[in-house]
Design brief:
The chain is α/β, with parallel strands linked by helices. It is 44% helix and 20% strand.
Length: 270
């Protein structure tokens, strides 16, 4: 990942901690936790690759996993250390490094992996391949990983409420129907959007077996303004939507059109 991406997350580290607390992003969080609870082994060593400020790592530690954090942004990692310490929790290790190089870990070290974030920002296919191959290497045979991408098909839907002005250009709108590599001038920083078929193919080509995939915002995807309004005006209805969206995030009728695509994979014993 580039220094542009590192700078963005260093400068927005505190905001990234707060992000998953907002009413709409909480749906993403709960969808991800649903997949963790459903597919991860009940015990073992887990590495959170692209751990950010530690939101998911904290939950993994609470569940009893021996949790290692790896994060590109030192500022994000410092927040994770502080938050984990404040909660009197203990992580196995903290590593500030690029996800393309996991040489600090041995082969077959982890029972499960979260790979959430690195693939959002690697524009070159070869770089994404390095992340996937390294993740495969450090995962134990029979291990499980959840690998995340930003989904173009969900982004075009979300854009109706979040950035409709960009749709004044029909060519720009149609770009969201396929792969996109965005510069920092266009995206929130340098970022990569793709479609579910392309993401699934990329992950399978790295050797993983696809178990399932999900759109973690579920049927609530693209309705951020409405979700926030509901959170303020009808908390009971809001919580029902959060729960039902998470529990149905793998449903075919929803999963191809959400912003965050999570692919659940398995490493076969060979």
């Amino acid at each position: 990942m580039s220094e542009i991406v590192r700078k963005y997350y260093d400068e927005n580290a505190e905001q990234e901690w707060k992000r998953l607390q907002d009413p709409y992003s909480k749906i993403e969080f709960e969808g991800t936790m649903y997949l963790i609870n459903k597919y991860f082994p009940k015990v073992g060593a887990v590495c959170d690759i692209g751990a950010g400020p530690g939101r998911y790592s904290i939950e993994l530690i609470k569940k009893g996993y021996n949790t290692t954090l790896l994060e590109f942004s030192n500022k994000e990692l410092e927040i994770a250390k502080e938050k984990i310490q404040e909660l009197d929790l203990v992580a196995e290790a903290f590593h500030c490094r690029d996800a393309r190089d996991l040489s600090v870990f041995t082969d077959n070290q982890f029972d499960a992996l979260l790979v959430m974030g690195p693939l959002y920002h690697l524009i070159n296919k070869e770089d994404r391949r390095k992340v996937l191959e390294e993740s495969y290497r450090v995962l134990k045979p029979n291990g499980v990983a959840i690998i995340a991408y930003i989904n173009s098909w969900g982004a075009i839907k979300a854009g109706i409420s979040e950035f409709p002005e960009s749709y004044s250009n029909i060519d720009a709108l149609y770009k969201y129907l396929g792969e996109q590599s965005l510069s920092a001038d266009v995206g929130f920083t340098e970022c990569y959007f793709t479609t579910p078929p392309k993401a699934l193919e990329e992950v399978a080509d790295a050797g993983f077996d696809i178990v399932s995939y999900a759109g973690v915002e579920g049927f609530a995807a693209g309705f951020s303004n409405e979700i926030i309004k509901l959170y303020n005006e009808n908390p009971e209805a809001y919580m029902n939507i959060v729960k039902a969206s998470a529990e149905n995030c793998e449903s075919p009728q929803f999963r191809d059109a959400t912003e965050h695509l999570h692919i659940v994979v398995h490493k076969n014993r060979k």
